[in-house]
Amino acid sequence: MERWWPALPLAGVAAVGAYYVGRASTEKEQQDSSSHGYRLRTNLTDENAMRIAKFLAQYAPPLDFKFHKGQHGRLAVVGGSKDYTGAPYYAGMAALQAGAELVYILTAEEACIPIKSYSPELMVSPFYSAQAIAAEEKWATQCAAKVTSRLPRLHALIIGPGLGRRVEMVAVVKNIIKQAASLPKPLPIVIDADGLWMVTQAPEMVRCANVILTPNKVEFDRLWKAVCGEQKRTSPERDIQHLSKAMGGVTIIHKGPSDLISSGVTVLKCSEKGAPRRPGGIGDVLSGIVGLFVAWAEMGVRRQEAANEKNTTREAIYSEAAYCACTIVRKSWEETFLQKRRSSGVPDLLQVIGRVLNALDVPLEKLASKM
């Protein structure tokens, strides 16, 4: 039986094409479909459609046969623990669904087999054992070394999903970030979930511009107290700018009804609708896509530097990458909710991300002609 995903056209792109399962599209459909075969069920603003298309055109590696395995994105997720195995899986799979090619999960020995059983696409390795955790500097250094030995081959590092809150792990994470900061070229580091709790225990570990923090309201409040103490807060926009500056210019994504993004200079606000359901795991998905997008942004910055081209600041590009990632996740979650309603979950979201991204990955000239 032929199945079809009905959809409304994407505002500002093209009102043609449809996603078909069960038969090959005709040559004319392939030529006409500027959204690669999938149309969104709800409209995306012209501004956001253009921003995402522009970001992908400028920074995403082109789909070209000259590339070899891994050049479109090699990421590692430092996370997972004996009790939490889903979070690093969601972060890693989200990055793959958005376009990464190689994703490593570096986790507890006790979590390896469960995570491996979730997907053969993730390369899972242990860097510590929950039974051998020790509050010793030597132990922390040895554990961190199993992660830092991989850093030169990575395009981005994600720390925190499912990592747990063992205080002994703070020294491990601190060591990893210190080694990453010593690399010849900046390595984007996304810190989420339990990684943010560890930052509150030692805020000095992240005072560098290549770090991206993704706190929700509670996590933001903890960061503020750890860094700014009892200093009076004014407005969400001013608060995120102030906290970013106080932490050395890190990029902060303050998740909420609208996502606020700032590297201390300007504030971007992502107000895409999303959906009225908040199951666990959506934040992990966001951290994976942010990791990939800032990896692409860093690749673009290096290409521009190599060509001696004038470019915007690294912080501004990271903020734009974060904004586009937030938009993709919110739109994908809205599309998922429209299909599954109350039963919608993160496994469903993972199946939609690629379709939404492909629908927005259109040539700029075609997009502009429809506006």
From TrEMBL:
Protein name according to UniProt: ATP-dependent (S)-NAD(P)H-hydrate dehydratase
GO MF annotations, alphabetized: ATP binding; ATP-dependent NAD(P)H-hydrate dehydratase activity
Coiled-coil blocks: none
EC number, UniProt record: 4.2.1.93
Role noted for this protein: Catalyzes the dehydration of the S-form of NAD(P)HX at the expense of ATP, which is converted to ADP. Together with NAD(P)HX epimerase, which catalyzes the epimerization of the S- and R-forms, the enzyme allows the repair of both epimers of NAD(P)HX, a damaged form of NAD(P)H that is a result of enzymatic or heat-dependent hydration.
Amino-acid positions noted as binding (6S)-NADPHX in the UniProt annotation, renumbered to this chain: G162, N216, K217, V218, E219, F220, D221, R222, D284
Reactions the enzyme catalyzes: (6S)-NADPHX + ATP = ADP + phosphate + NADPH + H(+); (6S)-NADHX + ATP = ADP + phosphate + NADH + H(+)
Cofactor (UniProt): Mg(2+)
